């Protein structure tokens, strides 16, 4: 497992104060089961506007009684089931501000990053970059040779971030959904 790292930087706005310019320490640590509800909330909020499940709901409405937020939150359950040791949580001053989920196909040499999410007031400060860099180092330490991350075409921020970290576009995919009734 990758070591816990701290980064000194300008941090997120503390909801209790108006001091946005104070220095804070971001801690990246291993996932704990009690982090899951907070990570689900952060992930659902971060994927608003860039979620396949949200696109499905825009066309069909809630499916089987569940909205897109419920379906997106379940992705984290799948990540926990697949590889809980590949989930890393970001904290500033003890506040969970986001996280990144990973899993490894060791035989293929590829590390996967299914989810990256930060609180709204923590975006645009380089913290997502730090989480991805952490995940990439985790993959290197595991002997992997490549990393894979996906985004939707409407996620211009993600596309810019990923390419700035050395990811290259290899394909585009179209998702289709059909009603079965």
Characterise this structure.
The chain is of the alpha+beta class. It has helices spanning 36-46, 52-60, 68-82, 127-141, 156-164; strands at residues 5-10, 23-30, 87-92, 95-105, 110-118, 146-149. The protein has a single domain (5-164), classed as Aminopeptidase, CATH 3.40.630. 33% of the residues lie in helices and 24% in strands. Strands 1-2-3-4-5-6 form a six-stranded mixed sheet, sandwiched between helices. The longest helix has 15 residues, at 68-82. The radius of gyration is 17 Å and the shape is globular.
Adjacency order of strands in the biggest sheet? 1-2-3-4-5-6
Q: Radius of gyration from the CA trace?
A: 17 Å
Query: Would you tell me which CATH topology applies?
Result: Aminopeptidase
Question: In the CATH hierarchy, what is the class?
Answer: Alpha Beta
Low-confidence stretches: 14-20
Structural class: alpha+beta
Number of helices: 5
Question: How many β-strand runs?
Answer: 6
Number of domains: 1
Profile the largest sheet. Answer: 6 strands, mixed
What portion of residues is helical? 25-40%
Average pLDDT over all residues:
90
The string of secondary-structure elements, in order, is: EEHHHEEEHEH
**Spatial gap, N to C terminus:** 46 Å
Q: What portion of the residues fall into strands of 2 or more residues? A: 15-25%
Shape: globular
Concise summary:
By secondary structure, the chain is α+β, with helices and mostly antiparallel strands. Helix content is 33%, strand content 24%. The protein has helices at residues 36-46, 52-60, 68-82, 127-141, 156-164, and strands at residues 5-10, 23-30, 87-92, 95-105, 110-118, 146-149.
């Amino acid at each position: 497992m990758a070591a816990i790292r701290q980064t000194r930087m300008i941090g997120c706005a503390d909801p209790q104060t108006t001091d946005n310019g104070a220095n804070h320490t971001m801690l990246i640590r291993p996932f704990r089961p009690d982090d899951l509800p907070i990570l689900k909330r952060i992930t659902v909020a971060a994927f608003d506007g860039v979620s396949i499940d949200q696109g499905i709901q825009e066309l069909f409405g809630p499916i089987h009684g569940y909205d897109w937020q419920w379906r997106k939150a379940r992705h984290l359950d799948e990540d926990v089931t697949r590889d809980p040791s590949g989930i890393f949580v970001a904290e500033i001053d003890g506040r969970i501000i986001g996280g990144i989920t990973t899993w490894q196909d060791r035989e293929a040499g590829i590390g996967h990053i299914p989810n990256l999410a930060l609180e709204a007031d923590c975006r645009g400060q380089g913290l997502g970059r730090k989480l991805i860099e952490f995940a990439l180092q985790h993959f290197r330490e595991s002997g992997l040779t490549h990393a894979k991350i996906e985004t939707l075409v409407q996620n211009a921020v993600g596309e810019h971030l990923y390419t700035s970290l050395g990811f290259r576009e290899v394909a585009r995919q179209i998702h289709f959904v059909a009603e079965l009734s």
